[in-house]
Amino acid sequence: MKSEFLIGTRGSKLALYQAELVKAKLEQSFPLFKFTLVKIKTSGDMIRRSAADPFTTKRVYTKEIEEAIDTREIDLGVHSAKDLAAELPAGLMIGAVLEREDPRDCLISKEGKKLSELPLGARIGTSAVRRRVQLLWLNPELVVDEIHGNVDTRIAKLEEGVVDALVLAHAGVKRLGLTRSVTDVFPEEKFYPAPGQGAIVVEVRAGDKEARDLVSSLNHRESAFRVALERAFLKKLEGGCQLPCGITTRLDGEDRRVTAAGVLFSLDGTQRVEAQIVAPLGNAESAGIWLAEEILGKGGNEILHRMRRKSK
Fold first, then answer.
1. Is residue 191 a part of any domain in this protein?
2. Among 25, 81, 168, 201, which residue has the fewest nearby CB atoms (within 10 Å)?
3. Among residues 75, 83, 164, 208, which one is catalytic?
4. Residue 25 and residue 43 in one domain
């Protein structure tokens, strides 16, 4: 049996925080083993992306880490769940989902204003189409600028006056200890999070029983169920990470039910289709597919058809 396990991670502050958290938990559970972090530069860290195809997931923040797992250069990969492709590369699997942080989005504004308090024409920075269309749905008078980079880079652009406010994942802001900067946190039912947002996952080779057994100790069952449901929802919509869709899930342990609500927008944000289901706590993937089918049947198919024609 191996005595050392290599953990792959990106080198950003947030990615290192997440990988260090996984490492600390494994060291606590398995003090006789050695766990070493390996920083891997991904294509998302190296290139400036052009407009993304909503149906293509280029794995910009995961591809190089997943290749290193596959070629046995590392044993585990730590990711934000929302960065994973809806369908993982052959031979890889999610070995664990840590207990989920807050999945909501939040606002950081230069003058401490809430979203409803921003003046007409205020410039908000985000790289996500999902956030852009929801912001403009709530307030068409906003100007949404595309801003890429890690959290520190985006906050620097806010401080430089490039934009008046930023929309970021609340979980990442909390993990970096920047909650004092948050001026607004958006309710999930009004501003839908991305599938898997707020969750940290550990990816392993499906055939690596040692690694699978180790990381299974980190798995939080409720969080894993919700992430599986949300990923099945995205997969059924055949979307990539830039499909303008969102989802919120809630488990009721006493009634043994899951409530899931989802939304799909057109790329210009002028159309939206929402749906909600209540399902028994059984198969997470089936519930996610059911929710997606509800959206497709209510007009989502037409929205996706128009998107596909434009992306060709």
1. no
2. 25
3. 83
4. yes
